[in-house]
Amino acid sequence: AHIISKIYIWLIVIVIGGMVLHNFIIWLSYVRKKYRAMQQQSVIIRFDRHWVVQHVATFISFTLLVITGFALKFPNAGWVQFLTHLGLTEHIRGIVHRISAVVLIAAAVYQWIFLLLVRKWKGELQSLLPSFIDVREFIQHMLYHLGLRKERPDFARYSYIEKAEFWALVWGNMIMLLTGLVLWFPTFATRLFPSWGWLVKASETVHYYEAWLAALAILLYHMFFAIFHPEDYPINLTGLTGKITEEEAKERFPRWYRKLMQQERGKN
């Protein structure tokens, strides 16, 4: 039975891994095709290179945190045992997890420095603040996709979708940072708050469930708009290039597009 189990484990890895590799190659070819097509179109700079660097650093560090975090939580899981066979032992996973946490924090600090201090980003934070207009546009958006409204909402630079993701990221980072530091330095935390005997256990619980919440939100919500949205498939290139085609800007963010055109006419 042990031999049969081993054979099937490797069979699953090879067969499913081969399928994933096969489909990834096909998907990547469509990404290249979309990128080449984008280069032939008129584009608008939606985000500068600093935003793109922060976005990519956040994505990579978050992905590593999810993988290593759940691997540390469930060390006996089959996929974790496979990682161990590849040389990613629990000790190494712990190191990668902490390094990724530092990178994620650095990316967040990097973004907030630009939001608060860099003149070029002036007004960016204000445009990310929620407002009652977002509620109205949310209703209009749902009605449009339910076939009960003919026109899309008149979205500005950021719709309720981007605002929700941004503030969810801020909230998640704060929760994971605070609880993560307690778990990283439990002795110091208990000395700092000696009467809070529940602190470490509570932090572990919050850290675990917030990790599930963040991972599922990214997988089911963010990745839909980044990859699986019918208008963006095989991928939304804006997060990697900082650019958006003029046609897409006009259709999806009409109020922002009109503002840009007014500014251009003002310059001329």
CATH architecture term of the largest domain:
Up-down Bundle
Q: CATH class of the largest domain, anyone?
A: Mainly Alpha
Strand content: under 5%
Helix/strand structural class: mainly alpha
**Which fold does the CATH topology of the largest domain refer to?**
Fumarate Reductase Cytochrome B subunit
- Widest β-sheet, arrangement of strands: 1-2
The CATH homologous superfamily of the largest domain is called Transmembrane di-heme cytochromes, Chain C
Number of spatially distinct domains: 2
Descriptive notes:
With 268 residues, this protein is mainly α. The protein has 2 domains: 40 residues; 227 residues, Fumarate Reductase Cytochrome B subunit (Up-down Bundle), CATH 1.20.950.20. It is 76% helix and 2% strand. The chain has 12 helices and 2 strands; from the N terminus they run H-E-H-H-H-H-H-H-H-H-H-E-H-H. Strands 1-2 form a two-stranded antiparallel ribbon. Helix 7 packs across helix 8. The radius of gyration is 22 Å and the shape is globular.
Secondary-structure map:
Layout: H1 2-39, E1 43-45, H2 49-73, H3 78-85, H4 90-117, H5 124-128, H6 132-145, H7 160-184, H8 186-192, H9 199-228, H10 238-241, E2 243-245, H11 246-252, H12 254-267
Antiparallel strand pairs: 1-2
Helix pairs in contact: 2-4, 4-7, 7-8, 7-9, 11-12
Summarize, please.
The chain is an all-alpha fold and 268 residues long. The protein has helices at residues 2-39, 49-73, 78-85, 90-117, 124-128, 132-145, 160-184, 186-192, 199-228, 238-241, 246-252, 254-267, and strands at 43-45, 243-245. It folds into two domains: 1-40; 41-267, Fumarate Reductase Cytochrome B subunit (Up-down Bundle), CATH 1.20.950.
